[in-house]
Design a protein that fits this description.
By secondary structure, the chain is of the alpha/beta class. The protein folds into two domains: 131 residues, Rossmann fold (3-Layer(aba) Sandwich), CATH 3.40.50; 213 residues, 2-Layer Sandwich (Dihydrodipicolinate Reductase, domain 2), CATH 3.30.360.10. It has a nine-stranded mixed β-sheet, covered by helices on one side. A six-stranded parallel β-sheet has the order 3-2-1-4-5-6, sandwiched between helices. Helix 1 packs across helix 9, helix 5 packs antiparallel against helix 10 and helix 8 crosses helix 10. The chain is globular. The termini are far apart.
């Protein structure tokens, strides 16, 4: 089995999840390629939490506070970078310059200018394999929905609604962090952090946003800092985008609504997708993560929603039986399986089994940039 040696830049939640996925690689018995984490870059290599990586990753041979030292390491072939948005441009471009392959975090640049620079860097280094992390597309219900899209099962699309809802910021006493600071998170606010997940399915379907009317809300304008002093909280907490969306295959235009909220009472981590068509409709929510609801309509027939138990029906076969439930860590393992499968074979089993591409990141940057203008002007703005 071929081994790809990875450097990990960032020691937060997604970095730990990647380490766990690499340790569980035996769950993917048909893979002929595997990841091995050999290097870690973190702001404070002496922090107690780094002991977790040292203890659980026996292949880890380098721990550094300087990402350039990691990029200079000849043992590192590929890099996973999970850092705040303002660092994406510099870190990703230097990764390409070092000749390393990259799995980067969304939104793939703090703004459209940064994203343009990253995509230009990819063009200058065509030998670098580059993808963006977004695990939710690998939930079995979404894989089934993707196959329905590929087969044209929905008929004429009537409308599409997607979103990502949290209640993580409902508490006004929650201390401020980098995602609530303009200099680190950027002007997109909640759109930049949650919006890419909400855009993945429509963009993968090939649909194109034509225009957007956006309403953005900065609800908690102050939060306590680490010392309890209240400081400005300037990023958008909630965003609702209403778009004209075009299907290039038919030239049909339909409404597409995207909601990204960090202040959504009653929600914890709810990503949802709803597609309505003339022949079939389907809807999914993480609040019922192992179920897909489908309505298939025959002319003159009854309209009735069916609830399908999806189980462990995955893009990349697992040792887990299809009868058993699927979860977040399984989705992350599938995402990394997709990255390495495509890296090795230059292709994937079907289009919805692919990680997010840099081109797809460019599409959401166009949408979010237009949404900022729409909110500022109160007008519907063309996405271009």
């Amino acid at each position: 089995m071929r081994t790809v040696r990875f450097g990990l830049v960032g020691s937060g939640f997604m970095g730990r999840e990647f380490a766990s996925a690499a340790a569980r690689w035996m769950h993917l018995p048909e893979m002929t390629i595997r990841p091995e984490i050999v290097a870690l870059c973190t702001r404070n290599p002496a922090a107690p939490k780094i002991d977790w990586f040292r203890e659980h990753i026996p292949t880890l041979r380098q721990v550094t506070g300087d990402y350039r030292e990691l990029l200079d390491n000849p043992d590192v072939e590929a890099v996973y970078i999970a850092v705040p948005h303002h660092l994406h441009e510099a870190f990703y471009l230097e990764t390409f310059e070092a000749g390393k392959h990259l799995m980067g975090e969304k939104p793939f640049g703090i703004d459209r200018k940064a994203n343009d620079a990253i995509l230009a860097g990819i063009e200058r280094h065509p030998g670098c394999f580059v993808r963006c992390a977004s695990q939710y597309i690998f939930f079995p219900a979404i894989q089934r929905m993707g196959r329905m899209l590929e087969q044209g099962a929905f008929g004429t699309i009537l409308e599409v609604n997607t979103g990502f809802l949290h209640s993580s910021d409902l508490n006004p006493e929650k201390p401020i962090n980098w995602k609530r600071m303009l200099e680190y998170n950027g002007a997109y606010g909640c759109m930049g952090d949650l919006g890419p997940h909400a855009c993945v399915i429509p963009l993968r379907a090939g649909w194109v946003p034509l225009s957007v009317r956006a309403v953005l809300s900065n609800i908690m304008r102050e939060r306590p800092d680490e010392h309890g002093v209240r400081v400005p909280c300037e990023t958008w907490d909630n965003a609702t985008l209403l778009c004209d969306m075009k299907d290039p295959r038919s030239d049909d235009v339909f409404p597409f609504t995207v909601r990204t909220q960090r202040i959504a009472p009653g929600q914890k981590n709810n990503w949802y997708v709803e597609i309505m068509g003339t022949r079939a409709s389907a809807r999914f929510t993480l609040n019922d993560a192992n179920t897909l609801e489908v309505l298939e309509y025959e002319p003159g027939g009854e309209q009735a929603w069916r609830r399908l138990d999806m189980g462990h029906e995955v893009a990349y076969p697992s040792i887990t039986s299809a009868l058993f439930q699927f979860g977040l860590s399984d989705a992350i393992l599938q995402m990394w399986g997709a990255f390495l499968y495509e890296f090795e074979r230059d292709g994937v089993p079907h289009s919805f089994a692919r990680c997010v591409t840099p081109t797809e990141s460019a599409a959401w940057h166009k949408l979010f940039t237009a949404a900022l203008e729409s909110h500022a002007t109160g007008a519907t703005v063309a996405v271009s």
